[in-house]
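in:
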């Protein structure tokens, strides 16, 4: 099929377009960011993801994917148009839908044949209905177009893997014709029998559950999924805080509760809280949907409040170690990306910690395996080091803020020799507590003995 992806140089749009091209469709990714479009045309991905460079090169060479800033020709010819533009938070927490509306209005022009328009961006319930109204001003629903809500659940760092091996696919639509077209589009992904080289072992073949719903429920599924994940993180951070006060170890607690099939081990890592481009913004947007419809989201409010306190708890631990005044202290920071495996620093809690350190007058020496250029653009006053050990030179303490696997087993003797004092605040519980303490470190994790 011919596919057009609006927002095609962004995280979700690029992964969607590349994935569909790899499946054999002819894809045009459209984006207003000309710099990113130019990079992609040259075969350079603006995002860091396992397997993405090879997939981009392969599909460019095969002529299955193209990149442009011009929506109209690509959108007019397409059988299916994906909208994967941003839906950032407004200051009051509501989702800013201006990008979605702008693209939808550009599509509301008559065209030759039947098209399916797919909203892939995460949007508050009611958005698809608003889009339908815009589209219906110039088109006939069911005759020359149908709208589908097909939310995205990819995890950054494993985005291509999640495209090809999703846990489920949600298709929200009132049109069997449109639902069928989207099913066909995903082809072998749905049967679970394909084999794609995405830098991770291929899972056992299995049919992917397809959840067919109405439009409103599809939009709600995405918000509910992210709110639930955020709830797990705030829950375990709360348990970690209690553990710290009563001499229990949250790691052991997670092991113990996770074997319960009703609970499971996933998304129970205590630490800095939930950051990144999705969980916090989507939680706030869902809360606004609730309050806007006369419902008080008490549980969700508590989830957010717990999250907002995590950074201060890490700063307090650092202050306890270094003597309460951070002014003129030199702090080494490992990790700037919002999570391991990505160069994305949007709403990165690691960067929020860096901002707090700078605010208190500390100097920061930082290292991240891939996200330093992105961090430098926001905090030019930080000293960035290509080597994690160099970042520790003469520092008063080391703060570990992103769970990169390469930080997991550092040469502790070397670290101790480089730091001005052997202090580590491990906000991701990456290091082995016993080893760090045996090596003479004043070591603090989150909820650990
Ligand atoms: N990043 C994730 O992990 C993730 C996962 C699931 C869902 N989502 C959701 O997917 C959506 C996109 O997120 P993202 O992280 O890919 O954002 P992004 O900022 O990386 O990408 C959005 C892209 O849209 C482009 N754009 C803006 N207006 C445009 C227009 N009028 N025409 C064409 N392109 C335009 C931007 O230039 C940008 O490249 C959001 O709703 C987000 O909540 C994101």
């Amino acid at each position: 099929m011919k596919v057009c992806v609006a927002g095609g140089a962004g995280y979700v749009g690029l992964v969607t377009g590349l994935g569909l091209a790899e499946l054999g469709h002819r894809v045009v990714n459209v984006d207003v960011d000309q710099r990113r479009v130019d990079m992609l045309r040259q075969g350079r991905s603006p995002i860091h993801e396992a397997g993405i460079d090879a997939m981009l090169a392969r599909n460019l060479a095969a002529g299955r994917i193209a990149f442009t800033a011009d929506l109209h020709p690509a959108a007019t010819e397409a059988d299916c148009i994906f909208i994967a533009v941003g839906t950032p938070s407004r200051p009051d927490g509501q989702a800013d839908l201006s990008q979605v509306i702008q693209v939808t209005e550009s599509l509301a022009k008559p065209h030759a044949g039947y098209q399916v328009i797919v909203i892939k961006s995460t949007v508050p319930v009611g958005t698809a209905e608003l889009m339908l109204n815009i589209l219906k001003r110039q088109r006939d629903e069911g005759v020359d177009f149908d709208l589908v809500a097909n939310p995205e659940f990819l995890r950054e760092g494993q985005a291509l893997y999640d495209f090809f091996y999703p846990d489920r696919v949600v298709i929200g639509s009132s049109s069997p014709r449109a639902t069928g077209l989207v099913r066909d589009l995903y082809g072998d992904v749905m049967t679970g029998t394909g084999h794609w080289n995405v830098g991770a072992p291929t899972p056992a073949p299995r049919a992917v559950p397809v959840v067919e719903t109405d439009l409103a429920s599809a939009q709600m599924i995405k918000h509910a999924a992210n709110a639930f994940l955020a709830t797990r993180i705030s829950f375990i951070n709360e348990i970690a805080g209690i553990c710290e006060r009563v001499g229990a170890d949250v790691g052991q607690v997670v092991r113990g509760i996770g074997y319960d099939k009703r609970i499971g081990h996933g998304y129970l890592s205590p630490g800095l809280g939930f950051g990144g481009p999705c969980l916090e913004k989507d939680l706030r947007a869902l809360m606004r949907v609730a309050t806007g419809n006369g419902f008080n989201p008490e549980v969700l409010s508590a989830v957010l409040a717990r999250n907002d306190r995590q950074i201060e708890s890490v700063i307090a631990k650092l202050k306890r170690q270094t003597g309460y005044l951070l002014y003129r202290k030199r702090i080494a920071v490992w990790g700037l990306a919002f999570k391991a495996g990505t160069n994305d620093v949007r709403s990165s809690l690691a960067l929020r910690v860096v901002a707090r350190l700078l605010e208190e007058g500390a100097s920061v020496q930082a290292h991240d395996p891939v996200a330093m250029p992105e961090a430098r653009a926001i905090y030019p006053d930080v000293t960035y080091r290509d080597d994690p050990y160099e970042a520790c030179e003469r520092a008063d303490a080391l703060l570990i803020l992103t769970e990169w696997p390469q930080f997991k087993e550092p040469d502790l003797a070397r670290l101790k020799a480089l730091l001005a004092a052997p202090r580590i605040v491990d906000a991701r519980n990456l290091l082995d507590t016993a080893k760090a303490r045996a090596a003479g470190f004043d070591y603090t994790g989150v909820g650990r003995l």
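note: The first strand starts at residue 2 and ends at 6.
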